[in-house]
Amino acid sequence: MRPGAGAPAREAQRNRWLVGGPPVAYLLVFFAAPALIMVLASFRIPGEFGGLAPLFDPAGEVNLTLEAYTRFFTDPVYAEVFLKSVLYALVTTLACLALGYPLAALIARSGKRHRDLLLLLVILPFWSNFLIRIYAWMILLGPQAALARTVNAIAASFGAGPVPLLFSPFAVLVCLVYVHLPFMVLPLYANLEKHDPALLDAARDLGAGGWQRFWRVTFPLSLPGVYAGAALVFIPALGIFAIPDILGGPDDTLIGNLIKQQFLETRDWPFGSVLSIVLTVAALALAALAAWVGRRGVGRGVRA
Amino acid sequence: MALLQVRNVSRRFGDFVAVDNVSFNVEAGEFFTLLGPSGCGKTTLLRMIAGFDAPDGGSILLDGVDLADQPPERRPVRTVFQSYALFPHMTVTGNVAFPLQMSGTASADIPAKVRAALEGVRLTGFEQRYPHELSGGQKQRVAIARALVTHPPLLLLDEPLAALDAKLREEMQVELIELQKDVGIAFIYVTHDQSEALALSSRIAVMNRGHIEQIGDPASIYSAPETRFVADFIGTCNLLEGHARATEGNDLTVDIPDLGEVRAASRAPVVEGSNIAIALRPEKIHVSRSVPPSLQRNRFTGTVTSNLYMGDVTVYLVTTERGRQIEALLANSEPGRSKMFDVGERVELAWPVDAGHVITR
Lengths: 304, 361
Prior knowledge:
Chain A has helices at residues 6-41, 67-74, 76-109, 112-123, 130-141, 146-157, 169-192, 197-205, 210-239, 242-247, 255-265, 269-302. Chain A has 304 residues and is mostly helical. Chain A has a single domain (76-302), classed as MetI-like (MetI-like fold, Orthogonal Bundle), CATH 1.10.3720.10.
């Protein structure tokens, strides 16, 4: 080290800690520590009236067990719920992509004046309470609402019986898409807005029609935005419990509902912890996979 | 029949007339340059030929076929964009193969054509690089290879060298001329750089405020400018404003208020008493302490007010007795001497009758 370089370097390091310290401490106390407690809880025995049994039983033996893990991996019911949750999250992500992409592209291509207004409209739903918005769907999809009456009138004209819209997978998926759509639109917009219009001119000049310009130029360049949006939709959708609770039918129990049940109703903390861990690991694995695919596929060119 | 015919093309943006009734032809294999200051309409004109913009009036014909109904992707012309517009997510090969894939070239034929196009612009060994791994000059070559790979009849180049530094720009100019001769494709080259236009072109159209001031080969544009704008825009020029006093055939006597009586030869008849200008290039002026006897006309004495040493030449600003400033230029052919005349020194200026070019517009 050069003489005299020590003091500024020390100061820079101190400033780094001053700036980065509080958020790191916050995450350690409120995220890392609870996560660790959850991991430890997953190996314990549930208490008689909820909570956890004492770590040492009266005989002095350590009360640790893999029973909760065994239960998850042996009873197919749980794998089924887990796969169903993945399926719902996947459908939600694809639907958000299909609806969000054109919307993001529209906003990115609209004039500067309209752009801010359109973005405001996209995030406007956040201004009202999450639960209130879900309950609103109860009314919208309810049997007396115009939508259900129209659908059932059409169904009747084909000789089919009335179809319930509420308390069905349909209701759950519609609301999942509705709630998560902004999380797809915003990163996609941020990406599409940066595209150089000269690239589309060049593609056109070189003989590419509309679809070819989209699939060969716009879409590959937007993949980082697609991955970001997909992660922001898929991961929260995977763990959600409020929407299936309120709008779902008996078959719409997802992994999030199961976890909530373990902690609040069945009061089996170890098994609830196991379910949470599996969910977290699955979400991390999928995020890692998406990042890996992104880097391999287009990462090199897009970073430029 | 000319390869490209631009007939009475106009384009307005609101009240602003970007292109005003422009007509010209480009022959097959020609290096044609649209030259003018920024905002003169040259890029708008290029975009209309490429199809990105449509004329409000007039027509554009390629091989005698009106292009009006053809969108850019269906026009056989290709464009090299100022920003290169290389696809950042594709390698050099991917970029150059793109137009071949779009035109439905058999995939077995693509590698050979890509290789040939890259060899044409002297860029081999970079096939698997991405654009962000290339230098400005290399990107430029890829952009040209990509535009030429399908052998279009006409290539449009929009200030393609503007982003390069001076040294590289000069190298690329030489390569562009050679490349254009090799491929035999007509180029329409847009630039605001008059020296680039003079060096590269077989013909130049000088544009100003949406219309064409003059079309001609570089030598005639430089030595016989038809308008004051062309004289002023191309190279440096002493523009001597005055009115024609007497004419003998095509020989004129012109009164220049701040200089005196100047004799000039006009190529066309000039109305006596009309306002005209004489364009006099700095290198045509003889500067000395005593004028040789062969030059008896157009003699003026003045004082050197500044001298700018440029290396190969030195530029002298001389103020004549009546206060007119004249720019003259002398080659520094004698070794070891940077300046022939010092500031404040009295010198004689003279030029032959046929050195000044008469401009009536």
